[in-house]
Design goal:
176 residues, alpha/beta, five-stranded parallel beta sheet, 5 helices, 5 strands, 31% helix, globular
């Protein structure tokens, strides 16, 4: 298959302007996937401007990026969610959380993020994006989800993957 024959799923990354979207987009584009070329577009928020809407490619998958050390990041994602068509929440969305390792620098409580993931029945991936290896691992996980959402995995649908997901809610057991 030469380059002109490759399929090109489209992915949108949404996150606050100061998030590491560009770094992550570059990581995704540089991951070698044999059967398709991934296209990545970035946005700071939704809805997208109406200008040239008819000329935009279809979007197969949306990544919402949140930084735990940036309060505006969660607010941007939360405000943008209402503009995304409900069908995307059937296996075509994920939340990527960065800077999650050090609680002392968090501006956002992880419970708020997990509630958001549960409310929209969407997976959460996390990593330290300052570490190239962790960024690449999260990138490969996103690529796998994009392959499924775009219909490139035989006999696997986004709904099947979503049905096997687990809740992120914290379970507090009563002391006996």
């Amino acid at each position: 298959m030469d380059g002109s024959d490759l399929l090109s799923p489209m992915q949108k990354i949404v996150g606050a302007e100061v998030s590491p979207k560009k770094q992550f987009a570059e990581c995704l584009v540089n991951i070698n996937v044999p059967d398709f070329l991934i296209q990545v577009r970035m946005a700071s928020y939704l809805p997208l401007p109406k200008d040239n809407a008819d000329q935009r490619p279809n979007i197969d998958f949306v990544v919402f990026m949140m930084e735990m050390n940036n309060a505006k990041s969660l607010a941007t994602v939360h405000d943008s969610l209402k503009y995304l068509d409900a069908t995307f929440f059937m296996g075509r969305v994920c939340f990527v959380v960065t800077q999650g390792g050090d609680d002392s620098i968090h501006c956002t409580n992880i419970k708020e993020v997990t509630r958001l993931c549960d409310a929209y029945s969407s997976p959460m991936l996390s990593g330290n994006f300052d570490d190239e290896e962790e960024r690449s691992i999260v990138g490969r996980q996103v690529i796998q989800m994009v392959e499924i959402a775009a219909g490139f995995k035989a006999d696997v649908s986004p709904l099947l993957v979503q049905a096997t997901g687990q809740s992120y809610q914290y379970i507090v057991e009563d002391d006996v």
